[in-house]
Amino acid sequence: MTDHHHDDALARLERSLGAPARCPHGWPVDAVVAREEGATLRTLESLGAGEVARIARVAEEDEALLRQLAGLALTPGSEVVVEQLGADGVRRLSVGGRVGMLAGVGCQAVLVRI
Known about the structure:
Elements: H1 3-17, H2 31-38, E1 42-43, E2 52-58, H3 63-71, E3 79-85, E4 91-95, E5 98-102, H4 105-108, E6 110-113
Antiparallel strand pairs: 1-6, 2-3, 2-6, 3-4, 4-5
C-alpha cells in the first residue's frame, strides 16, 4: 500500500470513530500529549494504603492481563481505592464498590492520576 492510500485509510478510520483523542485503554492518540501526560502519572504499584486515584491508562500488550484488569473494573476513568497492602505486594482494591486483589505486573500495568 502506498503512503497516500495508507493516509486515506487512516483518515477514513478516524472519521468513522469520531476522531477519538484516546484509545480504549486510555492512551492519547497524539504522541506529544502521551509523553507530556506520562510524566504526571504513577503506577498503581506506587500507591499506599488509603490512597485514592483515577485510572488514566492500562498497558495494552497483554490480552490476559487486560481481561484480568477489566474483570476487576480497573479501566480508564474508574476511581480506585487501595484498601490494604499485603506483605507480598498484593493490593486489596476497591473500584466502584467491587473489591479485588492485584499484585506485581498487574499493579505496574495500571497508570493513575492522584
